[in-house]
Each structure stands twice: as structure tokens, then as C-alpha cells.
What we know:
Layout: H1 3-17, E1 48-64, E2 71-80, E3 83-84, E4 89-90, E5 94-103, E6 108-115, E7 118-125, E8 128-136, E9 139-146, E10 149-165
Antiparallel strand pairs: 1-2, 1-10, 2-5, 3-4, 4-7, 6-9, 7-8, 9-10
Amino acid sequence: MNSTLLASLVAANAAFSGLAGFQPRLAPVAAKDAVAGKAVAAPGVKAARYVRLSGNISLNGSAHVGSGSSSAFIHFNGSTRVEGDNGKITSGYFSINQSEHFWLNGPSSHVSGYVRPNVSVSLYKDGKYIGQGYVSGTIHVSGWNNNGWVNLSGSGQLTGDVSITD
Length: 166
């Protein structure tokens, strides 16, 4: 073994052996705060918690397709708001504008599928901006291809989990 490496190992061993009696200093926590499931923060530090956001949305989409087309991109839109923490956290209203691809089964056929929005929303508590979060969902839509005019609609729920520091 080379002498420089050996000297480094001896020095590192001496440095770590000095930590043998190390005892960490922990801030006292009141017994009432040490309840199972409740986050306990160090003094002066705010605890973060997760809040579930949810809201319902209705989506409508339409497209005109040429004769003989077997598929179409259909543009959907709708608006909603989400909330969490028993209505204390809200997003304000936001819009979804999204296109999805659908297969068509003839000029007068039923069409169905899914729209999967994933949206960034601004969050507010007591009217004060507290950050951003994401909500998403899988919304089933259906309707008809009526001789080239395709109209689809559906409704469902958008959900997301965000970390909030009170």
C-alpha cells in the first residue's frame, strides 16, 4: 500500500475515533405533540402536510372530419376550480383546453374515449397566494359522429396532492 494512502487512512481513523462519545442534542417535544400521525416540527420550523385537492369538471369537444376519415383530433374545453382542506385551500377558476385523438367507426357511429388533463393551478388560503400544485384526472367522454360532425362530452373529477406549510 502506498505510504500517502496509508497516512490518510490513519488520519481519518483518528478523526472518527474522536466521535465515539458523541451525543446529539435534541429539542424537547411536548408529549401532546407526539401523537401518531401528526407531524412534529423542530422549534421555529413550520411542519408541512399534504392536502388532497379535488373538483368536478365537464368537458365538451367537437370536430368536423372529412368523408371517409377513420380518426380525428377533437379539441375539448371546460372550466372548474379545485379545493382541499374542507374548502380552506382553493384554486380559483381555471380552464382546460386540450386536444385528444379518437378513432371513428363510420359516418354515423358512437364514439367514446378518455381525456386526461394534467393542469398546474395556483393555490390560495384565505385569499392569499400560497403556491402551485398539479391536478389531473381521466375523464370519460362519449357522443356521436353525425356524418362528419363529431360532438363528445363527459364529466369527472380532477385530483391532486400538494404539500402545504401552515
